[in-house]
Amino acid sequence: MMRVWTVPTLFALCGSVAATGEFFAGDPGGATALLLAFLALAGVNSPLVFPRSVGAREAQRRSAADGRPIVFWRPGCAYCVRLRLRLGRAARAAHWVDIWRDPAGAAAVRAANDGNETVPTVVVAGRPHTNPDPAWVRDQLSAPSPGPRS
After folding, report:
1. What transmembrane ranges does the database entry give (predicted)?
2. CATH value at residue 66
3. How many other CB atoms are there within 10 angstroms of residue 140's CB atom?
4. Does any domain span residue 31?
5. Closest Cα to residue 140, out of 66, 77, 47?
């Protein structure tokens, strides 16, 4: 659980240390700007930026019912952040699985990527796509979903 907060915490701590140094060097404006930049990086890399994660099995069940893509991700992954930010509000339509919180999700990613935990891995209609173009994922999210499968 705590591993997901490692990167954001490190950004916040490093920013605090750097800002303190700038402040004592006589540059309070620079210290403030530096701290805000590091806090922004911490926020973007935190799990709070991503839609609520579900387990891999639940995501597969939901995807089978509504046809929406599954996005496997992990906190601290720059490519996952890029995908999330480029999708904007459309990201909420996908089923997100944090592979650091869900061992079944990590296993699904390893199975799709020759044993590597390469994220983001997006599963559309049962087919995995590793680090796809965000525009393509957005198109998949806006495509009409097939009805529930029998």
Report:
1. 29-50
2. 3.40.30.10
3. 20
4. yes
5. 66
What is the spatial distance between Cα 140 and Cα 40, in angstroms, rounded to a whole number? 29
Do 28 and 60 lie in one domain? The reply is: no
Selected residue with higher pLDDT from 146 and 80: 80
Residue 74: both structure tokens together: 């992990």
Tallying the residues shown for the chain, one arrives at 150
The one-letter code for the residue type at 135 is A
* pLDDT bucket at 48, cuts 50 / 70 / 90: confident
Regarding pTM above 0.85, the answer is no
- Are 105 and 77 in the same domain? yes
Give the mean pLDDT of the chain. Answer: 89
Domain enclosing residue 30, as ranges: 2-48
State the Cα–Cα distance between residues 145 and 85, nearest whole angstrom.
23
Choice between 145 and 24, residue whose per-residue pLDDT is larger? 24
